[in-house]
């Protein structure tokens, strides 16, 4: 019994050390992949907005007026009819607009979209969200997008809300690492979890 317990203790330590080593290796690779993406695509190739209220779509529509060659992706924003109306009022062609409703939270904003960016050979995005939300979004983007060789230029929408707590940043950074390792985000444990809906135009 004693030797068996020793064996399992050694095995447990081995897996823990292996996991820590993997995470450290991963954290050293991500900055390299981001640097390569920045070199190969020094200018953003698409606009990516995290949903969270109509002010984000309105800001994005104005921002897009100054970047007429860039497509716009919005992850789980306002209803399609409202979004199309905002962009239409701003003179933005709806052919540039892609609305995606698969995400259920900030982590899945990125994990559901990263394959779309890769399929379109996107290596650099404008990342738009509210200023209070930006620190968490940047942490997640660095891990999720960076691990896939995509860099980003953050754009903050001014607001009067206080910044999110460090707890939310650490928690979602951990979930992002979980996604990199396992392909899962833990979103199914979110009480607000719902079946994905997808709309694009």
UniProtKB/TrEMBL annotation:
<feature type="transmembrane region" description="Helical">
    <location>
        <begin position="14"/>
        <end position="36"/>
    </location>
</feature>
<keyword id="KW-0812">Transmembrane</keyword>
<dbReference type="InterPro" id="IPR003848">
    <property type="entry name" value="DUF218"/>
</dbReference>
<feature type="domain" description="DUF218">
    <location>
        <begin position="46"/>
        <end position="157"/>
    </location>
</feature>
<dbReference type="InterPro" id="IPR051599">
    <property type="entry name" value="Cell_Envelope_Assoc"/>
</dbReference>
<dbReference type="Pfam" id="PF02698">
    <property type="entry name" value="DUF218"/>
</dbReference>
<protein>
    <submittedName>
        <fullName>YdcF family protein</fullName>
    </submittedName>
</protein>
<keyword id="KW-1133">Transmembrane helix</keyword>
<keyword id="KW-0472">Membrane</keyword>
């Amino acid at each position: 019994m004693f030797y068996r317990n020793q064996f399992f203790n050694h095995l447990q330590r081995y897996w823990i050390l292996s996991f820590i080593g993997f995470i450290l290796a991963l954290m050293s690779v991500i900055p390299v992949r981001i640097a390569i993406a920045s070199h190969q695509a020094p200018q953003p190739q698409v606009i990516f907005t995290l949903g969270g209220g109509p002010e984000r779509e309105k800001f994005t529509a104005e921002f897009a007026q100054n970047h007429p060659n860039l497509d716009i992706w919005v992850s789980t924003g306002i209803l399609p009819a409202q979004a199309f109306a905002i962009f239409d009022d701003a003179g933005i062609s709806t052919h540039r607009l892609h609305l995606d409703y698969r995400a259920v939270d900030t982590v899945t904003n990125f994990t559901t979209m990263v394959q779309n960016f890769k399929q379109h050979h996107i290596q650099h995005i404008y990342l738009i969200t509210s200023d209070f939300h930006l620190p968490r979004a940047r942490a997640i983007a660095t891990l999720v997008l960076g691990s896939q060789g995509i860099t980003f230029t953050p754009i903050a929408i001014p607001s009067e809300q206080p910044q999110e707590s460090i707890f939310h940043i650490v928690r979602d950074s951990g979930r992002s690492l979980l996604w990199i390792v396992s392909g899962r985000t833990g979103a199914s444990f979110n009480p607000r979890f719902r079946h994905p809906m997808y709309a694009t135009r």
